[in-house]
Amino acid sequence: MVPGFFTYCGRGLLVLAFFYLALACDRPHRIENGFCSIGSEELNTAMAHWSRQFAEDRQEPPLVHEGRGSAIAPRALLEGTCDLGPMSRPMNDAEVHSFVERFGEQPVAIPVALEALAIVVPASNPRASISFEELRSIYLPPSEEPGPEGELQQLPEYQPFGINTASDRYRWFRAAVLDGRKEGDHVLEVSGPLELVDRVAQNAHAIGYARPAELTDSVRAPGLSDENQIAIAPTAQNIRRLAYPLTRTLYIYLPPQTRPEALDGRTVAFLQFVLSPAGQAVLEPLGLYPLADGDRVRMFRIVEGLR
Questions:
Q1: How many CB atoms within 10 Å of residue 266?
Q2: Where is 11: in which H helix or E strand?
Q3: What is the DSSP string of 100-118?
Q4: How does DSSP assign 27-51, residue by residue?
Q5: Measuring CA to CA, which residue among 17, 33, 26 is closest to residue 83?
Q6: Alpha-carbon distances of 306 from 50, 263, 271, rounded to whole Å
Q7: Which of 119, 175, 186, 266 could form a disulfide with 35 if both were Cys (CB 3.0 to 4.6 A apart)?
């Protein structure tokens, strides 16, 4: 038996119990001096891996992360419950303003990973590229995508598949591709990306979207062209240099440095680990991408200066 095993596990369970108690109470409680995380579920797996490796290196209980959505992170930071707020998008103006109003300064945004969506077609589909305009004509109801003379478009030759509308990935696709509009009723909704890829592979006219790492040999990803009509493939190189259009940055936010309470030393050390080569190496096996080396080093130096 490892010495201190029961003490180690018991303390971890106690932290977890206080964490959920704080979430359930109307009056916020500061957990582990802020060394905890509430926010995007898209980073759940990465946070779990980072937390476990960080705890093993330091021989102490892991950081507790609760994946409740990006919109919850700003509130947790404002209330001081936790000092780490993972988000799959930048904070909006209203969220940033709430920090400026209270602390006189914006929260600290630390990019920690990149995520991409590939457009998925069957392997038998020879198409080399597809545009955002074409995707809108495929996914939107016909009445919402007028033709060049204003006439209504007919439904395209493709059978589109989409992820369930409660998912963060659906919200991302809707905002980035459909300009915030809803998919049409002709889009077949599936529960998750693995099912989507499988369904697309079985239908010669199917199209969908998934992370590049979720693709199989039965499907392929044509290049995606923007308004410049330049088709860019979802390769790791294009994603890491932010050239592929459907790439987004995943963040961990911290409270403003003007807040009276200083950050716990573990919070800063955890972020340093996340931005280290070892921390970034966690990402690709999970279907995410590490930051470009220059961006990683720049963020690491910013974290070093946090208090």
A1: 19
A2: helix 5-24
A3: HHHHSSPPEEEEEEEEE-E
A4: S----GGG--EEE-GGGHHHHHHHH
A5: 33
A6: 20, 8, 10
A7: 266
| pLDDT bucket at 40, cuts 50 / 70 / 90 | very high
- Per-residue pLDDT for 25 more than 60? no
| CA 298 vs CA 31, 143, 272: distances in Å | 29, 47, 12
> Is residue 278 classed as helix, strand or coil in its secondary structure?
helix
Give the Cα separation of 261 and 136 in Å (integer).
Answer: 47
Residue 13 has pLDDT above 80, yes or no: no
In order of start, what are the domains of the chain with their CATH numbers? 5-114+248-304 (3.40.190.10), 118-233 (3.40.190.10)
What b/e string do you get for 87-101 counting C-beta neighbours within 10 Å, with b at 16 or more?
bbbebeeebbebbee
Model pLDDT for residues 141-196, shown as the tens digit of each residue: 986 555 555 444 544 589 999 999 989 999 999 999 999 999 999 999 999 999 99
Q: How far apart are CA 57 and CA 282, in angstroms?
A: 15
Encode pLDDT of 90-136 as tens digits. 999 999 999 999 999 999 999 999 999 999 999 999 999 999 999 99
Q: What is the Cα–Cα distance from 245 to 134, expressed in whole angstroms?
A: 15
